[in-house]
Amino acid sequence: MCLAVPGRVLEIEERDGTRVASVDFGGVVKEVCLEYLPDLQVGEYAIVHVGFALQRLDEESARQTLELFSELGMLQEEFGDPWEAAAGQEVGK
């Protein structure tokens, strides 16, 4: 199953003309492409699917969703081997 997971932007950099962020998903930090949300800023939350930030999200909604995913054990499922394989690919290419 694929999930869109909320995460908080920790830092943003530009790499080869592409904005890339380090995003915290309840303690797991991954690189995320910001091409679909070019105005997203550090400290904001976004829904992320397969390494792309897709939609801005308010902090309370993000925290509630992460808490629910954690309670259901879905974060472990989402960040298992398939996520690692996708995260290992270069973002924005």
UniProtKB/TrEMBL annotation:
What Gene3D superfamilies does the record tag this protein with? 2.30.30.140
Q: Which GO terms describe its molecular function?
A: carbon dioxide binding; iron ion binding
> Which Gene Ontology terms describe the biological processes this protein takes part in?
protein maturation
Per the record, the similarity remark reads: Belongs to the HupF/HypC family.
* This protein's name: Hydrogenase assembly protein HypC
Please report the organism this UniProt entry assigns to the protein: Streptomyces brasiliensis
